[in-house]
Structures
1.
Amino acid sequence: MVERLYLAKPRGFCAGVVMAIDAVRTAARRHAAEARPGVTVYHSIVHNRTVVERLQHEEGVAFVESIDEVGAGGSASDTVIFSAHGVAPEVRRQADRAGLTTIDATCPLVTKVHNEARKYAQRGYHILLIGDSMHHQEVVGTRGEAPEHTTVVAVLGDRDGDPELADPETVEVPDPSRVVVLTQTTLSVDDTQRTVALLQRRFPELVVPPADDLCYATKNRQDAVRAIAPRVELFLVVTSPTSSNGMRLLELAQQLSGNARRIDGVGDIEEGWLHGVRNVGVTSAASTPEDLVQAVVARFRDANPALEVVEEGEWEEIEFRAPRPRPPGGGA
C-alpha cells in the first residue's frame, strides 16, 4: 500500500502557459459577448490534450495547423491566436494577407530566443539551434526567423531523437569564427549544458548568449524532480506525450528513480505498478492542469486514508502581461 506521496513543487502551469490559456479564454468570451465569430488558435495553445479539449468544449475554440484553415468549415472566424510555442514570421504574414486579427500568445521566453535569432542572423552569424525535433512548433518558429542561417542540432546523446537533426559531434558551419548557439526552451538542463560544452570545444569562438535560453520553469521543475526521486519507488509524471518539457521530466525521473511512468490522468495508473511500492513521487508538465494532479492525490488517499502527502519547495511568482489584439497589417 502506498503510504507517502511526494508532490513536486513547483509543478504544472508556468507563467507562459497561464498567459496563453487566459488569452484564449478572454478572447473567446469577448467575442461571444459581442456576438462576434469565435476565435481560432494556430496549433495547440499548449501541448496538453485536456487543455485543448476543455477550450474546445467550454469556449468553442477551434484549433488549426494552417492559416488557410481559419474560417473554414462554415466558420466566419476573423481572429487567430498564436500558441505559446511561437510561430515563424511567414505565419504572421499569411495571417495579415488573410485579413485576420492576431493575438500573439507566444511565451516571452520563446520570443527572446526569436529576437536573438534575428539579431545574430543580421550580424552574419550562423545559428546552431539545439532542439529535440525539427517538427516541434518552438523549433519551427525559431528556425523560421532565419532559416538560411540556422542548423538545428540534436541534444548530445539523444540517439532516439529526430534523424533530421544535425549531430553536435560532427555538425559543420560556414565560418567557425561567426557562430552562435541558441536552444529550445524546454530541454533537459543537464543534457543541454553538455551539448553546449561540446560545441564550445569544437568551435572555440562560439557565442553563447549571456541569458540562458532554457526557461526558468523547465529548470525549476527538473530541480523539483531531483529533490524527490531518491525517496520514491515509483515516479508518476502527468503529461501529454507531445509536451517536450513533460517528456524531459519523465526521462529525468526514470534516470533518477529507475521507475517512472507517464500518465495523462488518474485513469492511466495501473495496479501492477504499485506492487511493493510505499512511496510515490508525482510531478506534472508546465502545461498540465493542477486538477489532474489532485485527482491522482485523491486516488491514493481513497486507497489509504492515512496517506501522508509531502510537498516541499517554492511556487513561482512570475506573471506575464496579457497580449493585445493586433489588426491585420499592424497597429496596436
Note: The CA atoms of residues 197 and 203 lie 10 Å apart.
2.
Amino acid sequence: MGDWWYRNIIEPGKLPLLLALLSFVLSFLVTRTITRLIRAGKGPFRNISPGGLHVHHVVPGVILTVIGGFGAVGSGRNSLGAMLSAVLFGLGAGLVLDEFALILHLDDVYWSEQGRKSVEVVVLTVALVTLILAGFLPFGVNELTAQERQSRGAVMMNIALNFFFALLALGKGKPRTAILGTVIPFVALIGAVRLARPGSPWAKRFYRNRPQARARAGLRAFHHDRRWAVPRRRFQDLIGGAPDSETTAAEERR
C-alpha cells in the first residue's frame, strides 16, 4: 500500500489534488447535513441573516476558493503552502458547487427540483477528479505512448479529436457523457455516434426533416429515462435530500 501511495500519489505530485478532493467531499457532505438539519428544524444550526440579509454559503465558498486558488499558484508544487491551499480550495469549491443551481438560475432553488443540478455537478466533479487521480488525463493524452508524447503534432491531434467527440456528445444533449468523455475518450465516442436526445441542438438541426430519426430518438430517450431516472433521483435524494413538492414550495412563497 505504501509503495502504491508513493508511485501514484506522492511521486507524480498528486497529493495536493487528493487533499482538495477529500476536503471538497467533506465540505459538501457537512454542508448538506447542516442544511438538511436547518430545513427539518433540528439542532442548533440556523440560517445566517445579518441585518435581514440571507447569506448563502456560496459566499464564503467563493472567498475560500479564491484564497486557495491564488495560494496554490504562488506555492511550490509539494510545499506545505500548496497542501494548505489545496484544502482551502476544496472546502470552498464544495460550498460553491453545493449551490451551483442557485448560481445557474440566479434564484434560490436549493430545495426545488432544479436544485438537483447541484448534486449532479458535485457527483460529476468527484468522478472526474477521481479518474485523474487514477491516472487518466484529459482528452485522451493518457492513450499516447512516451514516444508519441514527444511529438507535439501527435499530442495536439489526439487532444483535438477527443475534444471534438466530447463537443459532439454535448451537442447531442448528453452533458454527462461529454464531461466524462474528456478523460475517457471511448465514452465521448459512444455519445458522439449515438442518436441525439430530443430537443438537443443536434436534433433541432439535423432531425428537423427526418421524422423517423426524431421518432427513434424520442423512443430511445423514453426508454433510457424510464430505466435510469428513478435510480438517479433516489441516489440524489440520498446524498442531497429530496426537493420540496410543488405544493410545499408554493405555500412557502406566499
Note: The two ends are 57 Å apart (CA to CA).
